[in-house]
Amino acid sequence: MEQTVLQVSDALALINQTLEYAYPTIVVEGEVSSFKVSHNKFVFFDIKDESATLGCFMMVYALRIPLEDGMRVRVVAQPKLTQWGKFSLTVRELQPVGEGSLKRAFALLQTRLDKEGLFAAERKRPLPQLPSRIGVISSVHAAGYADFIKILGERWGGVEVVVANVAVQGAGAPAQIVRALTYFNQMADVPEVVVIIRGGGSLDDLSAFNDEPLVRAIAASRVPVLTGIGHEVDTSLADLAADVRAATPSNA
Known about the structure:
By secondary structure, the protein is of the alpha/beta class. It has six helices and ten strands; from the N terminus they run αβββββαβαβαβαβαβ. A hairpin with a 5-residue loop joins β4 and β5 (87-96).
């Protein structure tokens, strides 16, 4: 049986079509090596274990946390054959894995944003003493949110509460919180303060609040921001960027 002869570009297209059908996305965990940024636009790195290595590519705008060689990460990616015939993973989402990598990403981003002045005391604003209307960003199913609303009602009735229900954990949480913050900032009648609530959890659970675009959105908010995230011992970069940080949702 005579086989169809393909041009090289057609063969690549056929292989990628097959890969996309069979594996629209895969989740891979490993150690970062050979990390580099090209033209301040493209990110290249390898992800490896003890016996194998995979090349990875992503756009720099999609890199929401600092990255360096030796960090352990989990990537959500699409397998692809490049036009040069090299197999690669096109990364859509990336998260540090393990306490060491989470702490390292936190430290790298904290240093960078601190140098930019995002955490400076002089840019923080006081909260209104008697607000009549507040915006709350939280998961309405979370215990921290329930505590906040219960205590608010008991101590301070009559306050109008506008709630944005978002995920407060996982890869999609930071973008949802940013959208909610943007929504409150763009309202015709903006709330007098925005409160971001999340109860306690592990370092990994709270990692959404160390997301660079989220931290920048909090710092840029025209409405004062109060955070009540985790337990008293937990401090996120979102806390550092907020105008006021409460130790817990109940304290908020």
